[in-house]
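Researcher: We plan to redesign the surface later, but first we want a full-length starting point. Tokens attached.
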């Protein structure tokens, strides 16, 4: 399967080369995250200088010290205001949250963070999801996080943007190889090789991950390939980047309180499997002209396939007597004739009274379904092809004694997604795994196609008003078209066209109080449009099962985010850098997923619920003292609903009429109020390094408890440790211990129906938890040349 992805990627590469031959003649000088200051767009990366918003930057040294599994894992440990929710309990499938906004691989999670790689947007089209399993940090040369609702970062940047820069033969020459093994039968390995002759460069890399997982039935595997071919001229560069990924992940989700207290390794039902196949090609060309004018361009093509298989407990129950041999949607009677009861393949073998109408379930042949089936297999297949590009002109000039750094750009993206899903009746075995039957719910098939087009124009100017005072202004116009089409003929409500137009803008000021201290303030507006999956699952009377089936398509409003922030950043010589920031971001017409039931609360719909607000402050510092390197960051987050509404949450223990009331000031679930991170590394000798880190998170409300009627999950503090011993200049041994004290903790909470699967022994407590990983120990060896 990986071979197919590579073949597809190679074909895309050829197309990209043909499309950009005119640009190749004008390609520009190498640029890195650390050396470039860009005023308007993530195409080239950012530094903190003169930016009126929070900026966090990480280089290859930071990434190497972290030994992280992915970008999300690294940011959770080293970044400020970042947290992870292990909803799937797979280390490569977390929800990454920043300032109360989310970038998640899971459909059904409203997304508010945009992620770029070499200037190309990585959020998919169908649900704006981000697949962290396809983003190992092995291939990264640097990373930048820009905070706030900045319109120049593009759609979906409600809370911020993450810009990734990959390695080339110019910024990362040489070779490396590493391998590690340890707890949970986890094996990791990577190898890279790069070089250049001053004009042409190359870089190749492979990264592999495999583990059995610390929970039952949770084995996973991920392989990613990366390559870059580069050319450098006197004033030009041209880079061709190729990515390919093949992953097979088991993420078995939250477990009820009963299992949490008796067997934390257990899973509720299984399997929950996601297979990703991915290929992407990016061609980037830049040129600096002699008159202060510069050109930046990107073209990309991307292809992906996601196949999911989720074994769950059945929602249906045995019909009331005398029809208990069959499954029904519910056990209520009705008034219709038996002609409406029988499917086309049924015999009238029961004496059904005319005043009864059991809601029988029928299979694909029209036969009633046996009540022996107590589980279901939710299957889905999603294929997506996206292509697009961006063109940006930069101009540096001085007029009237004021230096201007002007940017004018345009971008375009078109994505086509085909989606199909089915629901197979199944039987749960003694391990709560599902065994298929070959019988499918006649009303559980979905076949749809979605085409999304987005076009944007943006402009920005950074004005150096004085030697100390800098002003930044920017605006972006976006047009988005989402065209969903039902291909089955059975779900006409899916066919609908939605269009969104929005002009967003912002600006700010920075002032140098001294050579080592800067103050800044800014106000910005950004937006995101409802994704195709949200538009296809937005009717409260026709809820869908995520991530598998969609049934209705009423319109949703786009979410408009307005934010203000201010802060200080400074340094003490070359040894210490620090920052302090306050922010407030208000979302108008925010979208959330409301559950309408389900054994694991995965049945529901998306809806605009009014305004929400995220506000707080951040403190961070890092530095070096003699043989010690240290970092410290703290963030306070107050995330609340600002309007009253009634949220659907039937599994909530205090639900009335299937939901609970939400009032202004109630806190948004799933977000800790306090986060604290600290790290300390000591170069004990030239050969030996010892380090430790701590991650602290306060408790959070359960998803489904938007009214804050119950207590939160417990807070926790996790300590990690690591050591590295350099045998020679080119060989080093390393040791990493996660959760040193084997702390038992939970990162997430929701509600479900444990008794539907576990029976009476589970009790009637509907709380489900995402348990955190126990202690893990890994040893490895690194080679460089």
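Model: Full-length starting sequence:
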């Amino acid at each position: 399967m990986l071979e197919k992805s590579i073949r597809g990627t190679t074909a895309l590469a050829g197309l990209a080369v043909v499309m950009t031959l005119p640009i190749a003649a004008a390609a520009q000088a190498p640029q890195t995250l650390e050396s470039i200051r860009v005023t308007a767009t993530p195409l080239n990366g950012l530094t903190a200088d003169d930016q009126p918003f929070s900026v966090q930057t990480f280089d290859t040294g930071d990434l190497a010290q972290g030994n992280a599994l992915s970008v999300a894992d690294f940011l959770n440990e080293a970044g400020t205001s970042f947290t992870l929710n292990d909803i799937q309990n797979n280390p490569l499938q977390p929800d990454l949250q920043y300032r109360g906004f989310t970038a998640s691989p899971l459909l059904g999670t409203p997304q508010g963070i945009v992620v770029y790689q070499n200037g190309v947007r990585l959020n998919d089209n169908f649900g704006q999801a981000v697949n962290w399993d396809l983003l190992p940090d092995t291939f990264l040369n640097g990373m930048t996080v820009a905070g706030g609702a900045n319109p120049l970062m593009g759609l979906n940047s409600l809370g911020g943007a993450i810009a990734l820069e990959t390695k080339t033969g110019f910024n990362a020459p040489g070779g490396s190889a590493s391998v590690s093994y340890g707890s949970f039968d986890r094996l990791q390995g990577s190898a890279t090789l790069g070089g250049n002759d001053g004009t042409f460069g190359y870089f190749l890399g492979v990264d592999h991950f495999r583990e059995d997982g610390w929970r039952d039935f949770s084995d996973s595997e991920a392989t990613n390939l990366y390559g870059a071919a580069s050319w450098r001229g006197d004033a030009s560069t041209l880079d061709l980047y190729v990515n390919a990924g093949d992953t097979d992940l088991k993420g078995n989700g939250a477990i009820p309180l009963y299992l949490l207290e008796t067997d934390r390794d257990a899973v509720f039902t299984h399997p929950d499997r996601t297979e990703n196949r991915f290929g992407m090609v990016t061609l980037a060309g830049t040129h600096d002209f002699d008159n202060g004018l510069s050109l930046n361009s990107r073209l990309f093509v991307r292809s992906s396939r996601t196949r999911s298989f989720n074994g769950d407990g059945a929602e249906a129950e045995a019909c009331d007597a005398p029809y208990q041999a069959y499954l029904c949607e519910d056990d209520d009677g009705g008034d219709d004739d038996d002609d409406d009861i029988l499917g086309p393949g049924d015999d009238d073998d029961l004496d059904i009274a005319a005043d009864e109408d059991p809601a029988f379930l029928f299979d694909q042949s029209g036969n009633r379904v046996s009540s022996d089936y107590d589980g279901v297999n939710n299957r889905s297949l999603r294929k997506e092809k996206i292509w697009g590009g961006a063109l940006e002109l930069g101009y540096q000039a001085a007029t009237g004694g004021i230096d201007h750094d002007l940017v004018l750009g345009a971008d375009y993206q078109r994505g086509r997604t085909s989606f199909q899903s089915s629901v197979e009746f199944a039987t749960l075995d003694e391990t709560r795994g599902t065994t298929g039957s070959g019988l499918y719910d006649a009303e559980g098939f979905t076949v749809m196609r979605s085409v999304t087009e987005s076009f944007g124009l943006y402009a920005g100017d950074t004005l150096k008003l004085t030697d100390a005072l800098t002003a930044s202004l920017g605006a972006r116009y976006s047009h988005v078209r989402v065209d969903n089409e039902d291909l089955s003929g059975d779900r006409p409500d899916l066919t609908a066209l939605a269009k969104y137009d929005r002009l967003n803008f912002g600006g700010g000021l920075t002032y140098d109080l001294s050579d080592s201290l800067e103050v800044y303030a800014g106000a910005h507006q950004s937006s995101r449009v409802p994704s195709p999956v949200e538009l296809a699952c937005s009717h409260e009377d026709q809820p869908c099962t995520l991530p598998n089936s969609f049934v209705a398509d009423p319109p949703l409003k786009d979410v408009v985010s307005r934010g203000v922030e201010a802060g200080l950043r400074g340094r003490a010589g070359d040894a210490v850098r620090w920052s302090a920031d306050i922010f407030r971001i208000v979302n108008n017409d925010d979208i959330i997923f409301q559950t309408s039931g389900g054994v694991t609360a995965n049945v529901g719909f998306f809806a605009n619920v009014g305004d929400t607000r995220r506000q707080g402050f951040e403190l961070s510092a890092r530095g070096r003292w003699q043989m010690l390197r240290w970092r410290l960051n703290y963030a306070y987050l107050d995330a609340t609903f600002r309007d009253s509404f009634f949220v659907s949450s039937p599994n909530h223990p205090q639900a009335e009429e299937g939901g609970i009331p939400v009032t202004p000031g109630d806190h948004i679930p799933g977000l800790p109020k306090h986060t604290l991170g600290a790290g300390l590394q000591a170069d004990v000798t030239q050969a030996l390094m010892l380090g430790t880190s701590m991650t602290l998170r306060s408790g959070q409300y359960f998803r489904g408890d938007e009214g804050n009627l119950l207590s939160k999950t417990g807070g926790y503090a996790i300590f990690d440790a690591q050591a590295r011993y350099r045998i020679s200049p080119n060989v080093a041994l390393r040791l990493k211990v996660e959760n040193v004290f084997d702390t038992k903790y939970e990162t997430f909470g929701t509600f479900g129906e444990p008794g539907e699967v576990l029976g009476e022994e589970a009790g009637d407590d509907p709380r489900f938890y995402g348990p955190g990983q126990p202690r893990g120990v890994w040893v490895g060896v690194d080679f460089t040349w």
